[in-house]
Amino acid sequence: MNSDMFARLSGVMLCLAGAAYIADTVLDALAPQISPGLGVLVPVFGLVGFPGFWLSLRSRTAIALAAYLLGMLGLAGLVVVTFLGNQVFPDLTPQIAGEAAAVAGPWFLVVGVTFLLSAFLLLRVCWTAGLANRIGAFLYAVGAIPVSLPPLMPDELVAFGGVTVGVALLVWGGCSMRAQSMQ
Predict the structure, then answer these.
(1) How far lies 56's CA from each of 130, 172, 181, in Å?
(2) What is the tens place of the pLDDT at every residue in 165-180?
(3) Tens of pLDDT along 82-120?
(4) Angle between the 94-126 and 131-148 helix axes, to the nearest 10 degrees?
(5) What torsion, rounded to 10 degrees, do the Cα atoms 17, 41, 120, 15 define?
(6) Dihedral sign (CA 151, 92, 17, 31)
(7) 3-state SS class at 78
(8) Considering only CA atoms, which of 50, 43, 45, 49 is closest in space to residue 68?
(9) Higher per-residue confidence, 76 vs 101
(10) What CA–CA distance (Å, rounded) separates 76 from 134?
(11) Rounded Cα–Cα distance for residues 30 and 117 (Å)
């Protein structure tokens, strides 16, 4: 795969992640009983899409490396968290789901804080990487606050955060695809 194809694939995957996040958030808010659990796809698509985005930033600082590593770890953790939340916990009795959440709770917190730290570091990295990247990073960081710490936030704020992160992913994905089509 050449670098142009890799960058385009990364952009497409970030757009799919953003669209899936927005759709999942809206469906969960409007009809939680019929939501198909699209949230499971978001971190998977992000893991495929973010490496090309990071390469496009061309930042080789220690902060950029830390942001990338924390971002990948956070997304990998979110694969598990979203799978449990969308596919496993809904089928459990409330008592068993509560017991499982109590056991996994500290790990969920670690994943959330890792994701949140990566979003703030990414904001720092993208601040000098062009207006669209800056806007995407700002939206991503703002949305990451309620998304990363849902037990501490009202449901409406978590939903707003999900849509905001989804829009950020669409911005970055669209920019990645546009940059490749202009070359």
Answers:
(1) 11, 10, 14
(2) 999 999 999 888 776 5
(3) 888 878 888 888 888 888 888 888 899 999 999 999 999
(4) 160
(5) -10
(6) negative
(7) helix
(8) 50
(9) 76
(10) 24
(11) 30
Q: What share of the chain is helix, strand, coil (3-state, %, to 5)?
A: 85, 0, 15
pTM over 0.85: yes
Burial 149-170 (b: 16+ CB within 10 A, else e): bbeebeeebbbbbbbbbbbbbb
Helices (H) and strands (E) in the chain, counts: 6, 0
Sequence-distant (6+) residues with CB within 8 A of 26 are 163
Q: Whole-angstrom distance between the N-terminal and C-terminal Cα of the chain?
A: 17
- SS3 (DSSP) at 10: helix
Residue whose entry in the numeric block shows the structure tokens 């999942």: 24
CA atoms within 13 A on the CB side of 128: 7
Residue 154 phi/psi, 5° resolution? -65, 150
Tokens of 80: 């598990």
CA 62 to chain CA centroid, Å, is 22
> What is the C-alpha to C-alpha distance for residues 15 and 170, in angstroms, rounded to an integer?
5
Residue with tokens 């019929």: 34
